[in-house]
Amino acid sequence: MIDWSWVIDNHAMIGDLLWQHARMVLLALLFGSLLTGGLLAVTLRWPATAQPLITLCGVLFTIPSLALFILLLPFTGLSLTTSLIGLTLYSLLILLRNVLAGMEKLPQAALESARALGYTRGFRFFDIELWLLLPSLFCRAAHCLGDAGRPGHRHRADRPGRAGTAAAGGF
Questions:
Q1: pLDDT in tens, 132-141
Q2: DSSP per residue, the chain
């Protein structure tokens, strides 16, 4: 049961904590996206690094949040930075794996046309592939945004719910 009188009496504190939570999740998603962009640049330059990077992100994703906080305490103390680092690391696997999977499913005719026009690998990514990936990136970012608020939550594609509907094309 919800004690509505308590909610009304503490609405200012609830609003402040809600804003703090939203800010942390958005910052974690921003930093995770920037790190994913860097990792993506590495995989575009050296394609053989894709699987080891996904494995590394998977290992980081399996570290329980409390254990990660304990590992970070000597460096960051008990602060919002500690939480932000954890949330950012947890977003990396979801973002990187899905961006790489989206790149594998790009239409080969468009990529071959770009090669025929003389596009280099970097220009082809920024002029063609990125624009074709944008719808998928926004869907995955929204999925990651939902998961980033729950660091104990682990994504499983075989579980019904949000992951199943996002994979089926809906949300």
A1: 888 777 766 6
A2: ---HHHHHHTHHHHHHHHHHHHHHHHHHHHHHHHHHHHHHHHHHH-GGGHHHHHHHHHHHHHS-HHHHHHHHHHHH-SSHHHHHHHHHHHHHHHHHHHHHHHHHTS-HHHHHHHHHTT--HHHHIIIIIHHHHHHHHHHHHHHHHHHHT-TT----TTSTTHHHHHHTT--
